Each structure stands twice: as structure tokens, then as C-alpha cells.
């Protein structure tokens, strides 16, 4: 699946490019990620992820498929797998920097392929979650550039269906590894993340706020306090609650009507 984002940082294109090409430094800005080795031809690292009671540690490597310092464009290919065999992840990331007023604009296209537990989530959920994680990344980058807390500049998702409810499936059944329907996707989520839901009730009860880059303090909440793992539950559950609340409400209403009808008999 392709995930497309754009964002701006308050610095020159040259300075932003220098930071983005410092893989060890910029890698630390992604929640849960650690760059363990940087080589001339690539890099290695790990990403710790928690989803309620499920803990995953992805380890992998990546390399520059293409890099043009003059044009400020790079293509990075990375692959990794969970050490416990819970799944694999691969991505080809294309980044292009360009001037934007007094700052630098980054256009990022990620061709993402995942297997295992994370693959149960549909493209729309993946897009929303990646939006939230990229907001955290941008906030950290702004801090690295000396801007202190994030200024509130937005991360834009240019995918046409980003932030919209998932449409009802049409056509032939999806291929293996994809949810057969929205409700199946929801039930799959409940099976693997029900424990996480209990700990996130407070955050999902509040109305969804408009998308904006979180402050550095709020960004830290995405990482587990003990080991720096990415708390995917805090990113995924509000998204699912927002997307599927109408479906859940309709299901509850149907059950209630059936129960009342039964009592009247």
C-alpha cells in the first residue's frame, strides 16, 4: 500500500537535508526506533512495538536505492521481521525536499508491505496511524533543529481517502492477509487488542481533536516509559474508535431493538 505525506520544517532545505541524511540522528526521532549501525551502503536497526499485551521487536536493515544531494531526493529501501515470528515489514520510501517560504517542505511516499498481526488493519487505518506517528516524528525533528517544542505546523496526508470512513467492500473477496470486510477487520482488532482498549478508554472517550503536530511532551506518550517501545495501542485505538464507532452504535441499536421486541412478545 502507498502512504503519502507532506510536512514542513522551520529551516533551510540544505539544513533539513543534512539532518535527514544523518540516519542515526533522525532515526531516533521515530517512536520506538533505534539505529544500531550506519554503513556507507546502508544501515541496521530495531523497532520496538507494543499493542496491549503483545510485544514485538522488529530488526532489519535498509539502504539507499537512490540519492541525489543536489536535487534533495532520496529513495530508501528497508526490510525487517519480528524476532518472535509475528510478522514482517518492508518499505520503499521516497523523500523529496523543496523550499517552502522560510522553511523546507518534505514530500514522502511510502510503499509499505506488512505481514502478520499488523496486516489485519486496512489501508485507511494504516494511513491514519502513520499520520499520527509522522506527527510525532516531525515534532522531534523540529526539536533537533533547535525549534524547541513543535510549532504546530501540520502534517498533511494527501491520500484521497485519508481520514474518511472505510468504504464497504465491493467486487471479489480480498486476497489473503487482507480483511474480508470492515466488521471482520474490527473483530480481528478486538481479538488482538482488547486488553489495550481497557487502558485507553479515557483517551477514546474524548472527542477526536483536529490533526496537528503534538508537542514534544505529548509525543513522548507514544513511547513506553520503561523501554522506549512504540505504544501502538495509543495510536491505533483512537483511530479505530473514530472509524468504527458508527458501526458499533448500529450494532448495539440492533441488539437493543431485538431485545425489546422479544420482551413485548
Automatic annotation (TrEMBL):
Source organism, top-level taxon: Bacteria
Region annotated Disordered, chain positions: 148-209
Regions of compositional bias (Low complexity) in chain numbering: 192-209
InterPro entries named in the record: CO_DH_gsu, START-like_dom_sf
Membrane-spanning residues: 244-262
Annotated keywords: Membrane, Transmembrane, Transmembrane helix
Record CDD domains: SRPBCC_5
Comp. bias intervals (Pro residues): 166-176
Entry protein name: Carbon monoxide dehydrogenase subunit G
Organism: Terracoccus luteus
Amino acid at each position: 500500500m502507498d502512504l503519502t505525506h507532506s510536512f514542513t520544517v522551520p529551516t533551510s532545505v540544505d539544513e533539513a537535508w543534512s539532518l535527514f541524511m544523518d540516519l542515526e540522528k533522525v532515526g531516533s526521532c521515530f517512536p520506538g526506533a533505534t539505529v544500531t549501525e550506519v554503513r556507507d551502503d546502508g544501515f541496521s536497526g530495531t523497532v520496538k512495538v507494543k499493542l496491549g499485551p503483545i510485544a514485538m521487536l522488529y530488526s532489519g536493515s535498509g539502504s539507499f536505492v537512490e540519492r541525489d544531494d543536489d536535487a534533495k531526493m532520496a529513495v530508501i529501501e528497508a526490510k525487517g521481521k519480528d524476532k518472535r515470528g509475528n510478522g514482517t515489514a518492508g518499505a520503499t520510501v521516497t523523500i523529496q525536499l523543496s523550499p517552502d517560504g522560510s522553511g523546507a517542505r518534505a514530500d514522502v511516499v511510502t510503499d509499505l508491505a506488512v505481514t502478520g498481526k499488523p496486516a489485519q488493519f486496512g489501508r485507511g487505518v494504516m494511513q491514519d496511524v502513520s499520520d499520527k506517528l509522522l506527527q510525532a516524528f516531525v515534532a522531534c525533528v523540529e526539536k533537533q533543529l533547535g525549534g524547541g517544542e513543535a510549532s504546530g505546523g501540520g502534517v498533511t496526508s494527501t491520500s484521497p481517502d485519508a481520514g474518511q470512513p472505510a468504504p464497504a467492500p465491493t467486487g471479489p473477496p480480498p486476497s489473503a492477509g487482507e480483511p474480508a470486510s470492515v466488521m471482520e477487520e474490527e473483530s480481528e482488532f478486538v481479538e488482538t487488542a482488547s486488553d489495550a482498549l481497557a487502558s485507553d478508554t479515557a483517551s477514546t472517550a474524548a472527542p477526536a481533536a483536529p490533526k496537528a503536530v503534538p508537542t514534544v511532551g505529548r509525543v513522548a506518550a507514544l513511547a513506553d516509559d520503561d523501554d522506549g517501545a512504540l505504544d501502538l495501542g495509543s495510536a491505533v485505538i483512537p483511530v479505530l474508535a473514530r472509524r468504527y464507532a458508527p458501526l458499533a452504535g448500529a450494532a448495539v441499536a440492533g441488539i437493543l431493538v431485538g431485545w425489546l421486541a422479544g420482551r413485548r412478545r
